[in-house]
């Protein structure tokens, strides 16, 4: 379903004839779509405001003066002006003149915001995803987990005649056949900073059957470039320019710790401190088929379950939205597992899977989780 949705959604055919007659009166949708590769929202421009001629001008006193850009609004902390002239959310230092930097582990990146707590950045992250066209299905400041709903990247749809005609009136008649979801993990760092990671999940609808009239959703690989694009957008939300954010992505600090798996006891040893291991295990879990439902940093435990993305996407589409039960689907995803991260020394951390009694288990499920983590961490 890369181009036309006719072969997959026959129910839409009945309304197309009603749309064709009204095409002449519609304005172009060229302004509805972003020119870059990320566009999850379709927003038309509102009509210009008309000010009545007899409107009395408001008095020019301090009640009607907008605050300076460095003054905090609501729960947002006061921003600091950098030597480059940015009003940045982070606190600049000699090491980080822009108040933030990117760290990297292979193709995995995360943003480190200096001098800010998760509580400081949480409201801004909520606003960030909403401004980019997403609704949130998980919004838990207590656990630092934020997950968007599945959404379609409209930038993937080619700008051909079909989109410029039928798609102008009936948006759902034209689809990219792909869905994306993003998970944000927000973690308190050891030195008063906040670590923010963005993980991409993707599904694609493919044609099946001899006559190609049926379809099903299949998983697509995560896109590290798309994750980096949203990290860049987030840094701009925090006060950097487009050029500065891309430069920080290029100059990312590289991690070199290698995990060692113990097949006999189904555990994993990471040669780094607990703070660093806790962050990397969370990132690794986010890139497997196991979803983090909850986490307790004080106890060093991630609560995870197997995520069936295809089951979740049954709610996508006309009939799915009528009959899909998200609560029931979540119950069908399988049992919950406890992944523990515990320091053995100041520079060595053990990762294991616990059973219901809180003991390290060597079950086949535990070995599968540890193997998946080992693949991601290396």
Automatic annotation (TrEMBL):
It holds the Pfam family Lipoprotein_18. InterPro entries: BamC_C, NlpB/DapX. Residues 1-24 form the signal peptide. Gene3D superfamilies: Outer membrane protein assembly factor BamC (3.30.310.170). It comes from the Bacteria. PROSITE patterns: PROKAR_LIPOPROTEIN (PS51257). The keyword Kinase does not apply. Keywords: Signal. Transmembrane segments: none annotated. It comes from Paraburkholderia caballeronis. This is Beta-barrel assembly machine subunit BamC. The lineage of its organism: Bacteria, Pseudomonadati, Pseudomonadota, Betaproteobacteria, Burkholderiales.
């Amino acid at each position: 379903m890369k181009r036309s949705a006719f072969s997959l959604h026959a129910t839409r055919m009945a309304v197309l004839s009603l749309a064709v007659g009204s095409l002449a009166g519609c304005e172009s949708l060229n302004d509805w779509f972003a020119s870059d590769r990320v566009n999850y929202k379709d927003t038309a421009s509102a009509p210009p405001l008309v000010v009545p001629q007899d409107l009395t001008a408001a008095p020019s006193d301090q009640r009607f003066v907008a605050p300076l850009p460095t003054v905090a609004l609501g729960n947002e902390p006061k921003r600091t002006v950098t030597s480059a002239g940015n009003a940045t959310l982070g606190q600049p230092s000699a090491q980080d003149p822009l108040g933030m930097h990117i760290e990297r582990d292979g193709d995995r990146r995360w943003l480190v915001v200096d001098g800010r707590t998760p509580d400081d950045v949480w409201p801004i992250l909520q606003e960030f995803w909403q401004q980019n066209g997403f609704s949130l299905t998980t919004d838990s400041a207590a656990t630092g987990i934020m997950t968007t709903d599945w959404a379609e990247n409209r930038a993937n749809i080619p700008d051909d005649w079909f989109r410029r005609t039928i798609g102008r009136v009936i948006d759902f008649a034209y689809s990219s056949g792909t869905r994306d979801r993003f998970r944000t993990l927000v973690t308190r760092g050891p030195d008063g900073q906040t670590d923010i990671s963005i993980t991409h999940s993707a599904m694609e609808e493919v044609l099946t059957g001899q006559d190609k009239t049926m379809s099903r959703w299949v998983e697509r690989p995560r896109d590290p470039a798309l994750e980096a694009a949203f990290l860049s957008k987030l840094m701009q939300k925090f006060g950097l320019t487009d050029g500065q954010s891309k430069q920080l992505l290029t100059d990312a600090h590289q991690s070199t710790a290698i995990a060692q798996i113990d097949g006999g006891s189904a555990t994993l040893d990471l040669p780094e401190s607990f703070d660093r291991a806790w962050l990397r295990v969370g990132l690794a879990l986010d890139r497997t088929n196991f979803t983090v439902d909850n986490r307790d940093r004080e106890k060093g435990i991630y609560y995870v379950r197997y995520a069936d993305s295809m089951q979740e996407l049954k709610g996508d589409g006309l009939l799915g939205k009528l009959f899909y039960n998200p609560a029931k689907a979540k119950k069908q995803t399988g049992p919950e597992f406890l992944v523990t991260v515990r320091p053995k020394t100041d520079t060595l951390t053990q990762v294991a899977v616990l059973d219901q009694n809180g003991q390290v288990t060597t079950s086949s499920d535990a070995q599968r989780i540890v193997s998946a983590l080992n693949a991601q961490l290396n």
